[in-house]
Amino acid sequence: MVPGQQGSRQRTQRLSGRDRSPTSAGFVFSGDELYQKALHAVVTEQRATVGWLQGVLAVTEEQAGVLLDLLEDQGVVGPANDLGGRSVLWATE
Q1: Which residues of 5-29 are buried (b: 16+ CB within 10 A; e: fewer)?
Q2: Model confidence over 53-85: pLDDT tens digits?
Q3: From CA 15, how far away is CA 20, in angstroms rounded?
Q4: What is the CATH architecture assignment of 5-73?
Q5: 1 Cβ partners below 8 Å, 6+ apart?
């Protein structure tokens, strides 16, 4: 297992469910505005790290991590590497 992925898997397990609505994090993901903003930012800037997304969206570290996990589930970004970065798999047209 790559370092840092255990936390990612634990977040995903805690958030399992169809709508991915982590009430403890204070927001809902299914089609919500925050997810759409994250998707737009990641694809436009071709960057995908927790720290960067946290700063761009002004969210908590946990929220940024969960958003990146959801983007990974959708095939937008790859899994976290050993430094916590992710490859962006989608490109702008």
Answers
A1: eeebeebbeebeeeebebeebebeb
A2: 999 999 999 999 999 999 999 999 999 999 989
A3: 6
A4: Orthogonal Bundle (1.10)
A5: none
